[in-house]
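Q: Hi! First time doing this. I have a protein sequence and I read that you can turn it into a structure. Is that right? Here it is:
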Amino acid sequence: MESLCIFTDQEILHALHTINKGGFGFGVIIDQKDKTFVGIVTDGDIRRALIAGNGLDSCITSVNRPVSVFAYETETRESILSKFTDGISAIPLLNEKKIPVDVAIFKSTAHIPVSEPIFGMKELIYVNDCIMSGWVSSAGSYITLFEKKFADFCDTTYAISTSNGTTALHLALLALDISEDDEVIVPDLTFIATANAVTYTGAKPVFADIDEETWNISPESILQNITEKTKAIIVVHLYGHPADMDPILEIARKYNLHVIEDAAEAHGAQYKNKMVGGIGIIGIFSFYGNKIITTGEGGMIVTNSREIAEKVSILRDHGMDKKQRYWHPVLGYNYRMTNLQAALGVAQLERINEIIAKKIHIAKLYSRELKDISDMRKAPCKEWAKNVYWMYSILLDNEKKREPFISFMEKNGIDLRPFFPALHFQPIYKDISCECPISSYISQVGVNLPSSPNLKEEEIIIICNLIKDFEKQTSV
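A: Yes, that's right. Below is the predicted 3D structure, encoded as structure tokens:
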């Protein structure tokens, strides 16, 4: 700061040297007695003064200057940022005695996205190899390899690739003969695809409330929603934290229900040391661009049932008989993954443990930096769970905060996502009645923070400091 200071009794020539050395295009004029802030002088101000007839030996106070912009060091980040304009990129900071102590510099913050994929040379090599082989559609060695390696990763016998996670869910339901007049219980807090896949079959989705601690489907609410038409339960491992599977499986056995795991957001998550996806009768994953690993678009079904695996394989390929080409005994769908996507998937799967480790490390950093905000709930991790933190999620203390919070963060270059709206809020499902007070509330106060494995520690600190700034402003 001292290198920018010009005393009120110094000459214009000295001021020019100071401005030149400072590199900001201005100098800070201070009183020679008490060193308090007098104002700012720019090289443009001095140029105009010289043209008007002032000499280099004239006192700096003879230079006409516009009203100076400054800030106090105790001001919030948002307050300081509001003072920058296209022509002002640096502002002196004053202490409570009005003595300059620092300079605030505006630097366009690089946009921090909520999520982004992580790629390396392996992805490029495998995709290029696929292109060179000519096998770029729904047949090829990478599809077989991806399916085998993913089954191994999930500790299941079978894995069948699909065009996306939603089609994987649809196929899973069809393979279990879910159809018109059936009911399938789904958590009220999930992405809409979970309910839509049920609707595709002609069955009715029934919305169960969630557990307040894990944000996953509540076993108690499942029990309250079982009827004679109930055929299955879809368990969603929301945002990477597994649901409490044992009581759900016990309910399913008692009432002879299928358990489908929607693990679209939970690759590698574990429930009591068991990989999610293979705990129920069938599980599905998504490889959309923002998921833990990606194939751009794509999905996977995992199961330990040979019968289900064979049925899914036929249904995803137009219902074509496996032994007689172009012979279609059942209505099927074109829900196949391409070899190109699978090549990307194989490369991604080779680094999945590295990606998950980074996700968990990022979560620990967030929890550390936000630990002192007592009225903010942080992402859960039960003692029986391995949370892979597809998203690091927080709950604000009331629903009125969320919109201004997201707006504040976005103004500062931080991309956030609100929680999925509760399904019973969705216009398409407004006629389905349910008692889901917990999902109603949590869906309105939940926010997902940037969670890319590419995040650096300093970026997390920036994000958390902004959150603290917002909390200070809203607590006043």
